[in-house]
Design goal:
The chain is mainly beta. The chain has a domain of 73 residues: Elongation Factor Tu (Ef-tu), domain 3 (Beta Barrel), CATH 2.40.30.70. It contains no helices and 8 strands. A 6-stranded antiparallel beta barrel has the order 1-2-7-6-3-8. A two-stranded antiparallel sheet has the order 4-5. A hairpin with a 2-residue loop joins strand 6 and strand 7. The chain is globular and about 45 Å long.
């Protein structure tokens, strides 16, 4: 299979500037600044309680097939794909987060496990999130 390019639609703005233990992101509030080209695509998103953010672990590199989850050697070794490790073949992160507000092209969210400057690749509504005036969802 040939590779393919992805272009960020925006970037994370956060006080978290370095990768940290996943628990460090709990209750952390940050922003996603969507690029002007894509701002119109945010229409109606503020009606959602939760969104799914797809992003690139841009500061991670390399991976191994099996790891101790969260780097905790007291946990049994397991396959990479059964963990949320940022060290992955394609460095893609996916997190469902509460959407706190939208102001123009800036979304404020909580619990996003991404650091300042992280490229955001896509934003989707969480399928269990209530649908407001936007209508019914047919695909994700």
């Amino acid at each position: 299979m040939k590779g393919f390019a992805m272009v960020p639609i925006g970037y994370v703005e956060s006080a978290m500037s370095r990768p940290a233990h996943p628990d460090s992101f709990a209750d952390t509030v940050c922003s996603i600044r969507v690029l002007p080209l894509y701002e119109e695509a945010l229409y109606g998103i503020e009606e959602r309680e939760r969104i799914v953010v797809v992003f690139c672990f841009h500061l991670s590199s390399g991976f191994t097939w099996k790891i101790h989850p969260r780097g905790d050697i007291s946990r049994p070794i397991t396959g990479l794909f059964s963990t949320r490790s940022p060290y992955r073949p394609n460095r893609i992160g996916v997190t469902s987060v509460p959407l706190l507000s939208r102001e123009g092209a800036v979304l404020t969210v909580r619990d996003l496990d991404a650091v300042d400057g992280t490229p955001v690749l896509d934003i989707k509504p969480e399928m269990s999130s209530p649908v407001g005036l936007a209508g019914q969802e047919t695909r994700s």
